[in-house]
Design brief:
single chain, alpha/beta, Rossmann fold, Transcription Regulator spoIIAA, 4-stranded parallel beta sheet, 19 strands, about 15% strand, disordered C terminus, binds iron/sulfur cluster
């Protein structure tokens, strides 16, 4: 990925409107960072939330850092090497290489074996830490496995209270929720025993202060001046490819009044609010929340909606609050394949959802699909084209009389099997097969007006698959990438390891299986063994989501 270096951090600072102040002063100094550009980082609610959680802790100085920061913090230009802790939120596997880029830019040795107690403690949290930390583990002192609300205060208090670095790491290595490679791996990089991941419980969700929300509003994000608020955690469904559903647990919603407190806090700074969650449409008080936002004359958008939630009661108030576009994820056009994904929802229901959106005045639609699903046939692929054509026809029928046809946008990805899901042992399709399937779909869709489709790069998908299911051996590939090797060269140079990680047999002894989110892992096996035979509504893809 080419990252444009920020030419004027001062301009970015000046353009920020902040709901809270960050102080760089404290007994310890933490750099809170995101391994991508400022623009991508500030679009991540996870990064914004971790910054805010850090600022809550007494006597901790907080600064931020990004990939385009040339080894210094964002606001005060402090060298990253001067921090006590560098805390990265890594949401996507492909960003792992940027952790190394940032260490390089800062003059901090990449491997913990080469660092001393004078170097910052390198900490990684976020989905990548919990999905499979092994490929990054030679670079990281401490992984946080689970929710920041639980683990960050514990980590910072431990750092404040333990001057001796060796003692600190030894202590953390024995606690639930932390993975300390130098203590929790053997000399060959194999895990020693189980580590436990800690997820938010009801009592955390119920606390008013714990509703994750942006605290910095800036035009320099994907959402341009929109403040983000999380509505719920977890998911009631269990789509077979979805890491989120098997790790975040059942759906738990933040209280409507607490969400509205966040809205009111934010609306003093911006009129644009974005509600995000794996299941926004399932919040029991969504109509009331949207109604109250409309009374406040706010412009509201939501992240992708679960297809069954595409009903008039949800879409009408959304449209009245300014939404002009929604995203859904049918994943495939084939009903039988969709049922096998444990997402048993009919094409008829999808078309009704598209029609309801049009009737409510939401003209633009984005739909996500996955190629390379286990058992996928050419007919299944062609059925994606049929579903898109039928959806497009609905949009034409509604748009033409008004002289304004909305845009239909399809995003296609290649299945990257994720640890802890029923597909964790699935084999990825090879390059030739990916080309053939993409060609088949592309041909079936030529000539649709007001239609755009994005096709995936097989190479990037395999690179991601390698990092998702790789072992500590994948670190040398990350180092090659950080040194500027192309993905093609890396995949060729590490052919055997890549093949092992992307064509895994389904056994119970996967390299990453040392992290237990026990009840969820068990559910993963149950779902794999007994796909739900009853048609029921299910939800959208989170292959691409920052949850
Ligand atoms: S893909 Fe979406 S709906 Fe399906 S299980 Fe994951 S979070 Fe839930």
């Amino acid at each position: 990925m080419v990252i444009t270096r920020v030419s004027s951090p001062q301009q970015l600072v000046d353009d920020e409107r902040r709901l809270i102040d960050l102080s760089p002063h404290g007994q310890i100094r933490i750099g809170v960072g995101y391994p991508n550009s400022y623009r991508v980082a500030l679009s991540s609610l996870a990064h914004q939330w971790i910054t805010r959680l850090s600022a809550r802790i007494e006597d901790v100085g907080v600064e931020r850092f990004y990939l385009d920061g040339t080894g210094r913090t964002f606001e005060y230009r402090s060298p990253l090497g001067d921090m006590d802790i560098l805390a990265f939120t890594v949401s996507f596997e492909l960003d792992a290489v940027h952790v190394l880029n940032i260490l390089d830019d800062s003059g901090i040795p990449r491997r913990w074996t080469q660092r001393t107690a004078r170097d910052p403690l390198v900490v990684v949290g976020g989905p990548v830490a919990s999905i499979n930390p092994l490929p990054l583990s030679p670079a990281v002192d401490v992984f946080c496995l689970g929710a920041g609300e639980i683990l960050l205060p514990e980590l910072l208090e431990a750092v404040k209270n333990t001057a001796d670095r060796s003692k600190l790491l030894e202590d953390l290595a024995a606690r639930d929720g932390f993975f300390v490679p130098r203590h929790n791996l053997d000399t060959l990089g194999r895990p020693l025993g189980k580590r436990r991941r800690l997820e938010k419980r009801d009592r955390h969700i119920a606390k008013p202060d714990n509703v994750p929300a942006s605290h910095i509003i800036t035009p320099h994000t994907e959402y341009r001046n929109r403040g983000l608020i999380e509505m719920s955690r977890g998911c009631p469904e269990k789509c077979s490819y979805c890491w989120v559903s098997f790790n975040y647990g059942r759906l738990r919603s933040y209280g409507a009044d607490h969400i509205m407190d966040r809205v009111d806090e934010m609306s003093r700074t911006t009129r644009k609010i974005g509600f995000i969650a794996t299941a926004v449409g399932d919040h029991p008080d969504l109509p009331r929340i949207l109604h109250q936002c409309r009374e406040r004359d706010l412009d509201v958008a939501v992240s992708s909606l679960r297809i069954p939630a595409m009903v008039r009661e949800v879409l009408q108030p959304l449209a009245q609050s300014g939404a002009r576009s929604v995203t859904i994820a049918p994943e495939t056009g084939s009903e039988s394949l969709r049922h096998r994904l444990n997402k048993p929802i009919s094409n008829q229901r999808i078309l009704e959802a598209a029609e309801t959106a049009q009737l409510c005045g939401i003209n633009n639609l984005k739909m996500y699909f996955i190629l390379g699903l286990p058992g996928e046939t050419d007919d299944d692929i062609l059925s994606i084209a049929s579903l898109l054509q039928a959806t497009h026809q609905i949009m034409l029928n509604h748009g033409r009389p008004k002289g304004r046809v909305g845009n239909l946008h399809a995003g296609v990805s290649i299945l990257v099997p994720k640890p802890y899901t029923p597909y964790q042992g699935a084999t990825m399709i090879d390059a030739r097969e990916a080309r053939r399937r993409i060609k088949l779909l592309r041909r079936a869709l030529t000539g649709l007006p007001n239609f755009k489709i994005d096709f995936p790069s097989h190479r990037e998908a395999v690179w991601q698959g390698f990092l998702s299911r790789g072992t500590t051996d994948a670190f040398t590939a990350l180092e090659d990438r950080a040194a500027g090797s192309t993905v093609s060269n890396i995949l060729n140079g590490h052919r055997n390891a890549v093949e092992a990680a992307t064509t895994n047999p389904d056994t119970d002894d996967q390299p990453w299986s040392f992290i237990s989110s026990a009840p969820m892992a068990q559910r993963s096996k149950d779902t794999a063994a007994q796909p739900n035979p009853e048609p029921q509504d299910s939800r959208e893809d989170h292959q691409k989501k920052d949850s």
